[in-house]
Amino acid sequence: MRLFGTASVLIALMIVMWQPISVRAQPCLQLAGLEDAIGREVGEKLEHIFAGHNPCLSVQYMPASRSEALLLSDEIDGDFPRLPEFAPYVGAKAVMVPVPLISGKGVLVTSDPAIQSVDDLGAVTLGLRRGTKWSSEAAGGHINRIFLPSYDIVVDMFLRRRLDAFLIESNNLKQYEAQLASATKTVVRQGHAYLWLSKKNEKYLPEITRVLTQSDFQTLNAYDQ
């Protein structure tokens, strides 16, 4: 009887082993999301919506500059949130899922109410979060730029007058409202941000698009990346 049971287990294992790979459970796609509040909120929603789907999605959180490098080297399967203008940076190595995850504004924060645009900055020092593409593009030809690893550092330097101005997304700006109550804030950009898949995962583009479109996922009115 015990022998029969052992044989049954072996037969079952052999059946599983001989199944085509497509029939077996597929690992989740490994995505990179920004390690801030909005990145985690979107990431948790994506994991929840795609649980039980093929593909399922798993998110790890990191700085934007690192996630871009990992996407370009094929070490992750996707990256979010990114603007359509992310295209020149990834070339043919990634494709955009055409369902917006985030909608929002890019804001210029200054200590001078006379400054209403990046062009008005003159020679003053402008702070940018490292790896944030929209702000690098919005800064245009402004020469006196300082790239910093986090908005906590950017805001701290601004409050200590080591920066004259900085660019930030509207959602991230909310957590500094009390500290920046007297600062001048000007919207310099509006748009949507998306999930980008590595080229090797382009086959999943139709299914991911379908699931996002048909799910209860709602575009967050938050910020651009």
From TrEMBL:
Q: Which SUPFAM superfamilies match?
A: Periplasmic binding protein-like II
Highest lineage ranks of the organism?
Bacteria, Pseudomonadati, Pseudomonadota, Alphaproteobacteria, Rhodospirillales
Q: What is this protein called?
A: Solute-binding protein family 3/N-terminal domain-containing protein
